[in-house]
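Throughout our pipeline, every protein is held as a single compact record rather than as scattered files. Such a record has a labelled line for the sequence and another for the backbone structure tokens. This encoding replaces a full spatial description with a residue-level series of whole-number codes. For reference, a complete record is included directly beneath this paragraph.
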Amino acid sequence: MAKKALLIGINYPGTAVELRGCVNDVRRMHRCLIDRFGFSDKDITVLIDIDKYRTQPTGKNIRDALETLIDKAEPGDILVFHYSGHGTRIPTPEGIFDATNFDECITPSDMNLITDNDFRDMLSKVKEGCKLTIISDSCHSGGLIENVKEQIGDSHVNKLKPAENTNFFVRIFKNLLAVCGRSSSQGDRGGPRGSFNREIESEEGETVTRYLPLDSYISLLEEETGETGIKYGKIRQTLVRRFGDNASPRVLSDSMKRNGHRGVFSMILGKQSEVNTGGAETGSSSSIPENGILLSGCQTDQRSEDVYVTRTRKAYGAFSDAIQTVLSQTRKGKKITNRDMVVKAREILRKQNFSQRPGKMSHPANYVGGARPL
């Protein structure tokens, strides 16, 4: 039995949305996996963006490293994927039903998004007898595996039926909200509104939200591509033009489904009509992954926080820091289940006056007795 991990930390140095705690999260987790869980340093891959001489955490590099982690695993192996960085979400294409009306994504250093459907498809390839634990300390991380049931969580889920999801006025409203980077239910939950690039004083020190509004993401994408005036309905086409076959498989698939017809409604929405195959499509055709567990730093419609602790002069993700606190309070050698980890992390964040609520998502087979330790 092998223990292998992939750790991603992205601070986005020099940008308007720079964070300070993500690389620190990775360094702490790296040491924790070795000292507490018996991982070997040679079996831990680390991608960070503060050293230009190291392999960068681009979209392609992250996907390649995660696919390698999964492909080379053998039955009985324990796999861990930890991501600390910005999260965002983009409206689902017209004609495709999604439980939240958005594709939740992580934001690599080159803005080449990795979507919830990409994670779902990769998890479906985990071999029988393996378990992959995903820890995501990023905004909207509760929806990072498309259509996987929450065991602990209360994320906003779209209650519309697939046919209603394609209603013109519903999509107009949804896409206008997306420009502001929030859903109709989000409000102030998960962090101070509009605080993605400023510091807030708290009892613990200063906090910066890991919230990346859609318009801020587009600005970064324009810097990456050299294009200007990118509309939110054109994000997928822009990613395909910039990254080609190295773009997200979900983004490539969405682009291939487009036809050449444009109507007045499509022009208002800023996108071409999707090919209609006899009804609204679901976000993914693959079965629910049985061998993956997601521990999210917040709910689908919430934000995760980046915390600078004055007394230690270091920044960490609030959820990542809570995980380390739970482990420090647990006797070494004593196993702690993923469920207990999330419940205790929630309580720590509540006492620290954070509104983000960590969650746990996995296949129904893992509901009872399947809360495997990290």
Summary: DSSP finds eleven helices and 16 strands in the chain.
